[in-house]
Write a structure and sequence with these properties.
- Helix 3 packs antiparallel against helix 4, helix 4 crosses helix 5 and helix 9 crosses helix 10.
- The protein is mainly alpha-helical.
- It has 2 domains: 109 residues, Rna Polymerase Sigma Factor, Chain: A (Orthogonal Bundle), CATH 1.10.1740; 70 residues, Arc Repressor Mutant, subunit A.
- It contains 11 helices and no strands.
Length: 195
């Protein structure tokens, strides 16, 4: 779960209600409309930072990935053509940047104070239901968990997941089926299927 300070950073003070589609925004950015890029940023920043947090596990790294992701997107202009859903386009970039950030952060040695903070955070126990579900999800393979989260947390269609992850549609369907079957058979997650 994303920490409270991160949530506070992304509370919508002014909801962006620009009626233009992502395609129209991309066309406007290509035509030099900087405000259109800002609308696109506000529309997808929460999704990007939450996805990055899932990969990195820390708020600081997730915010770094957010910045790098939109710099990556900005460099595509002018001339960028959006041929799929924007989440499908951004997902591989967020994933790659998150993995890189996590690996880079892993190279640094933690201090004693940081180690104690990690131990204290680990000692805090979340609610039984969420910890049971988290444990059941952690028991899945990375590929199964990735497809499951993209489908049910991020709301991507199966074809979009296929494009984002770079595997055939049949593989996505198989991974999703196997992930759901594993969760159904896991005692810790069974109650979520009985509702």
């Amino acid at each position: 779960m994303v920490g409270s300070s991160l949530k506070q950073n992304f509370v919508e003070s002014e909801t962006q209600t620009d009626p233009r589609t992502d395609q129209q925004l991309v066309a406007a950015i290509n035509a030099g409309d900087a405000g259109a890029f800002e609308v696109l940023y506000h529309r997808y920043r929460d999704w990007v930072v939450h996805l990055a947090y899932r990969f990195t596990g820390t708020e600081d790294l997730a915010l770094d990935v957010l910045q790098e992701t939109f710099l990556y997107l900005l460099r595509k202009f002018p001339g960028f053509r959006l041929t799929a859903h924007i989440k499908t386009f951004l997902y591989p970039a967020v994933r790659h940047l998150s993995i890189g950030a996590r690996q880079k952060a892993g190279r640094y040695q933690s201090t004693d104070a940081e180690q104690q903070a990690l131990e204290y955070a680990a000692a805090e126990t979340p609610s039984t239901h969420s910890s049971d579900l988290a444990a059941a999800l952690a028991n899945l393979t990375d590929e199964h968990r990735e497809v499951l989260l993209l489908r049910f947390v991020d709301g991507l269609a199966l074809r979009e997941i296929s494009d984002a992850v770079g595997v055939p549609l049949g593989t996505v369907k198989s991974r999703l089926h196997n992930a759901l079957e594993s969760l159904r058979n896991d005692e810790r997650a069974r109650e979520f299927f009985e509702r």
